[in-house]
Amino acid sequence: MKNKYIIIDTETTGFHPYDGDELLQVSIIDTDGNVLFDEYFKPQHRTEWKEAEQVNGISPEMVADRPAISEKISEINAIIENSDTIIGYNTQFDIGFLKANGAIVPDDLETVDVMEDFAKIYGEWNSARGSYKWQKLTRAAEYYGYDWSQRAETAHNSLGDCYATLFVYHKILSGE
Prior knowledge:
By secondary structure, the chain is α/β, with parallel strands linked by helices. It has helices at about 50-55, 60-65, 75-80, 90-100, 115-120, 135-145, 160-175, and strands spanning about 5-10, 25-30, 35-40, 85-90, 110-115, 125, 130.
C-alpha cells in the first residue's frame, strides 16, 4: 500500500552517523497517525551514550535485547520505497542516520522539514547565520498547544516525536 506522506523520527547515541554514533530508535507513521514502524535497536559498537541518554532516556539496558538495525533496514526501505514524501523535524539529520545504516532514500524523494518551516513562523533571527534560528520540536509543539499527555510516548521518544511533528505540520498547513 502506497503512503503519499510518512513522518520519520530517530533517536541516536549522538550527532555523527559517520563518526561512530548509532541509531537507538526509529519510528515511522502515516499522516493519519497509524504506526508503520516503531523499533528500538541495539548499537553494534557503542556500549554507552551518557549525553544522549540524558536527552532521550534510552539506556544500554533498554536496548540490550533489541535487534540490530541491519535486521530491520529492509522493512524501513520498503516503507520509504512506497512513499512520495518524508516529513520530519530536522529531516536531513534522520535521513543521514538512516542512510548511514543502509536505508535507501532516493535523492529525488521529496522531503519536508517542519523545523525549517517553523523557524520562519517563530521568527527568531540568527544574525550570525543570516537565517531564522531553528527551534526544538518541544518549542514548536508548545507554540501550537500540543498536549504531550495525550499519548504514552513523550518528547525525545521517536514515536512521540513523530506525533508531535505531525501535529505541528498540520498546524502550519492550516495557517493557525
